[in-house]
Amino acid sequence: MKKLVLALTALAAFTGSAVAADLAARPYTKAPMMAAPSWTGFYIFGGIGGAVWDANTGVANTATGACILCVNQKQGGDGWYGTVGAGYDWQFNGSWVAGILADGQFGSVKGTIQDQIPLVAGNIKNKDSWAAGVRLGYLVSPNVLSYVNGGYTGSSWSGTTLLNTGTGLASGLHTNGFNRNGWFLGGGVENNLNIFGLSAPGWFMKTEYRAAYYDSKNISELVDGTNALAGRDITFRPLVQSISTSLVYRFNWTGPVVAKY
Questions:
Q1: Residue 146 belongs to a domain
Q2: pTM over 0.90
Q3: Is residue 9 part of a domain?
Q4: Per-residue model confidence as pLDDT tens digits over 96-110
């Protein structure tokens, strides 16, 4: 029995020494660490959205500008649009992102204008618009940016055939298309698509609200065939509100990256 105990003791001592030697020979490696992503760089995007516009309208004398229908009315319209754009962002102070942007919208956001004196009305639409501005955002997580933006914007509006509101027939009057400029304010959220379990480095999705305030326009009523002034202008000052969802691609998205130490 003594011999058996001594043999087991010797075997245990030898095994422990071998395991200790093996552990000592292996290099010690820390757990992988995730490097923070960087939002600095260029990006492009494209998407779709919906919009509504409303405008304070009245009727004024073409020659003098004096109001004929002096109580403002609010006309409006709605529709869809597509959007494309590009920008550049800088990440600073850890969680802050600032950037510049430019984009364009195109579609059919259609509504009505009218003149109640001869009882005529017609449909006009916001055909396209563009914007250039800046944005400032905060990273609520490394892959999610909440931001506000603002800047300068322009828009293009169609002309219309004015119809008699009683009969629906052509009234012999029409308006021409025009452009208006103004400014916009907005905000939204942009997130990396990897948060949905997708493997999509560089690909993001953003949802944005925007309000565009345009300068007023006196839309002259013109006689069909001659384009002579009818003597009355429909006053028009639009506000366009829109919401869109876009797919974004960032060219030098660097994170998250696994780094070992």
A1: yes
A2: no
A3: no
A4: 999 999 999 999 999
37, part of any domain: no
**Dihedral of alpha carbons 222, 225, 227, 230, sign:** negative
Give Cα separations from 45 to 23, 203, 246 (angstroms). Answer: 53, 10, 6
CA 201 to chain CA centroid, Å, is 21
**Alpha carbons 167 and 7: distance in angstroms, whole number:** 115
What domain range includes position 100? 42-255
- Report the candidate in 45, 132, 43, 130 with the shortest Cα–Cα distance to residue 88: 43
Could you report the per-residue pLDDT of 201-230, keeping only the tens digit for each? 889 999 999 999 999 999 999 999 999 999
- How many domains is the chain built from? 1
Which tokens in the block code for residue 173?
A: 């009057």
The rounded distance, in Å, linking the Cα atoms of 130 and 134 is 14
Helices (H), the chain: 2-25
Closest C-alpha among 153, 154, 141 to residue 189 = 141
| Average per-residue pLDDT for the chain | 86
Phi–psi pair at 51, nearest 5 degrees: -145, 155
Q: Is residue 8 part of a domain?
A: no
